[in-house]
């Protein structure tokens, strides 16, 4: 199954009148160590609640800057734009523009494809679940470059760095999820994306991909070898081992240099995400890179 150009946009073929969790999410990040700015941008359409959420969490000069808005959702919403945060698909699969006019800063980024889209819905990598109580979603991701500028306190700075995007839609009931690790690490010659989702009463879901100039290769298995934590028990560093579909082994070590702590009250009072902006090293090649090291954890 290929990702169609029209799949980039808002899907209106959702089940009408559903009370089960049906969501469509878009995610874009950027990490510019040189210019001391990094962050995540997220838009979520909750069809079962008829609500659209627009969120941006950025760190600029070590200061956390946030934007969050919720608007009513119906079929009249045709563009990902709430008047402040917007995503434009300039050329599907190739070029994207993200703008934010927040209360304390603004951002204007042009994203370009680094590698091809990786689609999880292939013959070898069928979507998990398949019923309304699972993560029965369509899902693809892509490594990017980001170029543009960010303005804060009347001063503009350039942004030039790697980025990453994620788009999913479908039934997304996360009530049974016990936790997850998600890594999107950008290296000069490749992108390594791995995830392990732990669901109560089911085997762990291990997924991901390697993007290189030769193409994409799916991940067959993921192990979390170790995790270091600080005195507050927040994760600071992890070692991961992944095996891809070509039987290549990849050993990643993350080291947090900045991060966000995001309580997920809508998913459960004790759930939270540690969104770690991290430096990465790859044992097999000696490469170093940068990316996201994300942990969903139950803090109870």
From TrEMBL:
It comes from Abyssobacteria bacterium (strain SURF_5). Pfam families: DUF7064 (PF23212), DUF7065 (PF23213). This is AttH domain-containing protein. Residues 180-298 form the DUF7064 domain. Residues 10-172 form the DUF7065 domain. Transmembrane segments: none annotated. SUPFAM superfamilies: AttH-like.
């Amino acid at each position: 199954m290929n990702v169609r150009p029209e799949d980039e946009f808002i899907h209106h073929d959702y089940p009408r009148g559903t009370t089960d969790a049906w969501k469509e999410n878009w995610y874009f990040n950027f990490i510019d160590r040189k210019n001391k700015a990094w962050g995540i941008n997220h838009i979520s359409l909750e069809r079962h609640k008829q609500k659209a959420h627009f969120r941006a969490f950025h760190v600029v000069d070590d200061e956390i800057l946030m934007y969050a808005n919720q608007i009513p959702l119906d079929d009249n919403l045709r563009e990902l734009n709430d008047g402040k945060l917007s995503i434009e698909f300039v050329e599907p699969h190739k070029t994207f523009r993200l703008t934010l006019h927040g209360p304390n800063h603004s951002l204007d980024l042009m994203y370009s494809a680094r590698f091809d889209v990786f689609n999880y819905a292939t013959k070898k990598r069928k979507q998990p679940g398949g019923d309304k109580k699972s993560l029965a979603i369509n899902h693809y991701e892509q490594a990017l470059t980001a170029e543009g500028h960010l303005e804060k306190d009347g001063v503009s700075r350039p942004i030039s760095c790697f980025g990453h995007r994620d788009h999913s839609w479908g039934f997304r009931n996360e009530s049974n999820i016990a936790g997850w690790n998600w890594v999107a690490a950008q290296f000069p010659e490749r992108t390594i994306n791995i995830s392990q989702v732990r669901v109560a009463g089911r085997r762990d879901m291990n997924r991901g991909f390697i993007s290189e100039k030769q193409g994409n290769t799916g991940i067959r298995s993921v192990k979390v070898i170790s995790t270091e934590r600080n005195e507050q028990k927040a994760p600071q560093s992890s070692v991961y081992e992944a095996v891809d579909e070509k039987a290549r082994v990849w050993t990643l070590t993350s080291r947090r240099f900045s991060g966000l702590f995001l309580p997920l009250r809508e998913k459960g009072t004790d759930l939270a995400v540690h969104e770690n902006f991290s430096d990465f090293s790859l044992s097999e090649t000696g490469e170093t890179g940068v990316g996201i090291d994300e942990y969903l954890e139950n803090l109870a």
